[in-house]
């Protein structure tokens, strides 16, 4: 006796939805970068109209450089997630790494604890659940992915602070002084 299901049709439909959301997330990033690279919201209209041809060219070159770096960063992060997915023996298509990355980046926009602790793990596990990955494996993957992205950047940041002769405490005090100065300037 054979039982037929619509599972394969549903999988294809969900795969298209996931890919569309991933592309939409990357497109949204590019739009935001474009608006700021070309002065979309920050420059007054008269200033934008008065741009010279060389100025437009330089802005275009800067925009393309930012776009190229953005694509490179996204590909590196997606590659990292892809390798982690393979390391956990999670059988999903390669586009899953782009989807997970897109959902993570949208998810961490929500105000959260420092370092996105909790938010990152929730959205990482939730995005993998859409691929049918078990809860335990998805949460383990999300915690590992967060550690792989957070720990090296934090260590490098501390190393560069040290090389500049700065201490984390002095930066905190400096930001507090700046905040106090802002309050005094408002009076």
Can you characterise this structure?
There is one protein chain. Helices cover 76% and strands 0% of the residues. The N terminus is likely disordered. It contains seven helices and no strands. The chain has one domain. With 187 residues, it is mostly helical.
Instruction: Count structural domains.
Output: 1
Average residue pLDDT: 77
Number of strands: 0
Percent range of helical residues: over 70%
Question: What does the largest sheet look like?
Answer: none
Q: Give the low-pLDDT segments.
A: 1-6
Strand content is under 5%
Alpha-beta content class: mainly alpha
Give the overall shape, derived from the CA principal axes. Answer: globular
Query: Roughly how many Å is the radius of gyration?
Result: 22 Å
> What's the N-to-C terminus distance?
81 Å
């Amino acid at each position: 006796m054979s039982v037929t299901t619509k599972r394969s049709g549903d999988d294809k439909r969900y795969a298209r939805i996931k890919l569309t959301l991933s592309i939409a997330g990357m497109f949204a990033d590019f739009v935001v970068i474009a608006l700021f690279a070309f002065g979309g919201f920050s420059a007054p209209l008269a200033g934008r109209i008065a741009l010279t041809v060389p100025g437009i060219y330089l802005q275009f070159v800067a925009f393309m450089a930012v776009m190229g770096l953005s694509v490179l960063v996204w590909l590196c992060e997606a590659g990292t997630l892809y390798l982690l997915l393979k390391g956990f023996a999670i059988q999903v298509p390669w586009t899953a790494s782009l989807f997970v990355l897109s959902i993570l980046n949208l998810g961490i926009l929500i105000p959260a604890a420092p370092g996105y602790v909790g938010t990152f793990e929730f959205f990482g596990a939730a995005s993998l659940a859409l691929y049918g990955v078990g809860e335990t494996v998805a949460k383990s993957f999300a915690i590992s992915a967060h550690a792989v992205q957070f720990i090296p950047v934090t260590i490098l940041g501390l190393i560069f602070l040290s090389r500049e002769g700065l201490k984390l405490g002095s930066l905190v005090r400096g930001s507090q002084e700046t905040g106090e100065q802002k309050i005094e300037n408002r009076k």
